[in-house]
């Protein structure tokens, strides 16, 4: 071992209640320090800074002093065991060529779970997302973890230091062989990058082997332009004018139109709307909400949508189908669930039914188009464009590449600009 990373120090800047000072292990690497408490203390009188041990004497006759001396001898033996433990840990790191972090060392020294391992770190992050009600994020990372484990059978023992450029390239090539397109690979590897960045921030990994540094592996290059599916005007008009003869499909039609008129509001957002989201302002009545997808991001802004006669009409039609439960604004959610995860899964099940009814609705109305809930968003954008709504307005409404990725739909538009855009829908 070429270098010693740890020392034993008397922490004289912080006096304990008994008048002594704590003896700490100080681990230093890359100019940074980590203090580890050893539950041993001493006065300056009995600490040998050069030897990094407690001072002991021979031939003491006074009982009190002899007992204190015996205590220091035992504590020195304990310090020696701590010293050997630290040396063994560093030796193992060097043998395995692990560019360890201070946090990794501390966790190993205190016999904690090694946080430098990929899978435990990712599982801990997923649990945190679930506990903080970021259900969609948790689900996304759970999917990445499942695929990652299929690629790497030893992921449970894999350290972040091993996830280098060659490893990521192998993962990408494995996904290609499985038939994954660019956008699918972008999703998985974006999650890998994000969890690596978080691990670096939390001290569980270092930038030394970061495979995405300086675009060594450029995740963004995987992303492909998707075909934007929007209803042609004649189909949109038929959808607006033609009620379904099947109650469930009529409900789906009204919900699709509600989403269209509210600038392509996502299913999870419209399902979670509450009565409190209706706000009465000087210029009219508005639905004001924050998108589930971005509500916890920095600079997230509420979206304000004036309730037009068209929006009100779809709400009234849906309420005739069935009344909303609790304080929900729309009759989408059918049962109150006890946990956020169960609530999220309930909405996911309802969304699958919704898309199935839209498919049947298209057949009934002879609309030769693959109708899904997401189509409302692109159809709305195309209608704005065809009606000469300024491009910058559409860009802000839709969150195109010209804006930051988190600023989508209506995040930065003023209410009066939105109102004018609504007039052409």
Task: Write structural notes for this entry.
The protein folds into 3 domains: 6-109, no CATH class; 118-222; 233-422, hpI Integrase, Chain A (Orthogonal Bundle). 47% of the residues lie in helices and 11% in strands. It has helices spanning 63-95, 102-109, 118-131, 135-151, 165-177, 182-201, 233-241, 247-261, 267-271, 309-321, 340-364, 375-386, 391-398, 415-422, and strands at 6-15, 21-29, 32-42, 47-48, 53-54, 278-281, 284-289, 303-306. Helix 4 packs across helix 6 (182-201) and helix 8 runs antiparallel to helix 10 (309-321). The longest helix is centred in the N-terminal third of the chain and has 33 residues, at 63-95. This is Site-specific integrase. Keywords: DNA recombination, DNA-binding. InterPro entries: Arm-DNA-bind_5, DNA_brk_join_enz, Integrase-like_cat_sf, Integrase_catalytic, Integrase_recombinase_N, SAM-like_dom, Tyrosine_recombinase_XerCD.
What descriptors fit this protein?
single chain, 425 residues, mainly alpha, 3 domains, 3-stranded antiparallel beta sheet, 14 helices
What can be said about this structure in brief?
47% of the residues lie in helices and 11% in strands. With 425 residues, it is mainly α.
């Amino acid at each position: 071992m070429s270098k010693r990373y740890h020392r034993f120090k008397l922490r004289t800047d912080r006096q304990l209640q008994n008048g002594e000072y704590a003896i700490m292990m100080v681990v230093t690497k890359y100019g940074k320090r980590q203090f580890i408490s050893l539950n041993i203390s001493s006065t300056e009188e009995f600490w040998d800074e050069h030897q990094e041990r407690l001072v002991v004497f021979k031939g003491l006759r006074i009982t009190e002093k002899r007992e204190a001396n015996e205590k220091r001898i035992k504590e020195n033996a304990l310090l020696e065991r701590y010293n050997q433990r630290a040396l063994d840990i560093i030796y193992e790191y060097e043998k395995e060529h692990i560019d360890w972090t201070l946090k990794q060392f501390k966790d190993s020294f205190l016999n904690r779970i090694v946080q430098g391992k990929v899978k435990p770190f990712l599982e801990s992050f997923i649990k945190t997302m679930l506990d903080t009600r970021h259900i969609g994020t948790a689900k996304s990372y759970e999917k990445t973890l499942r695929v990652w484990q299929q690629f790497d059978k030893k992921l449970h023992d894999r350290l972040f230091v091993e996830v280098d450029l060659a490893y990521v390239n192998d993962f990408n090539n494995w996904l290609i062989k499985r038939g994954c397109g660019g956008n699918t690979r972008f999703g998985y590897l974006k999650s890998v990058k994000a969890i690596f960045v978080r691990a670096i921030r939390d001290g569980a990994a270092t930038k030394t082997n970061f495979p995405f540094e300086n675009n060594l592996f450029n995740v963004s290059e995987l992303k492909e332009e998707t075909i934007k599916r929007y209803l042609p005007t004649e189909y949109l008009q038929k959808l607006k004018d033609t009620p379904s003869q099947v109650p469930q499909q009529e409900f789906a039609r009204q919900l699709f139109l509600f989403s269209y008129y509210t600038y392509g509001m996502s299913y999870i957002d419209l399902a979670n709307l509450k009565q409190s989201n209706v706000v009465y302002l000087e210029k009219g009545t508005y639905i004001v909400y924050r998108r589930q997808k971005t509500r916890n991001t920095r600079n997230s802004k509420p979206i304000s949508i004036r309730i037009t006669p068209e929006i009100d009409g779809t709400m009234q039609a849906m309420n005739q189908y069935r009344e909303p439960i609790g304080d929900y604004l729309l009759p989408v959610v059918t049962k109150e669930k006890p946990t956020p995860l169960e609530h999220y899964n309930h909405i996911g099940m309802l969304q699958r039914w919704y898309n199935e009814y839209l498919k049947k609705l298209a057949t009934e109305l002879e609309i030769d188009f693959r109708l899904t809930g997401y189509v409302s968003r692109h159809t709305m954008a195309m209608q704005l464009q065809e009606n000469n709504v300024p491009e910058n307005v559409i860009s802000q409404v839709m969150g195109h590449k010209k804006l930051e990725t988190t600023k989508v739909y209506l995040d930065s538009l003023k209410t009066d600009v939105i109102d004018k855009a609504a007039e052409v829908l």
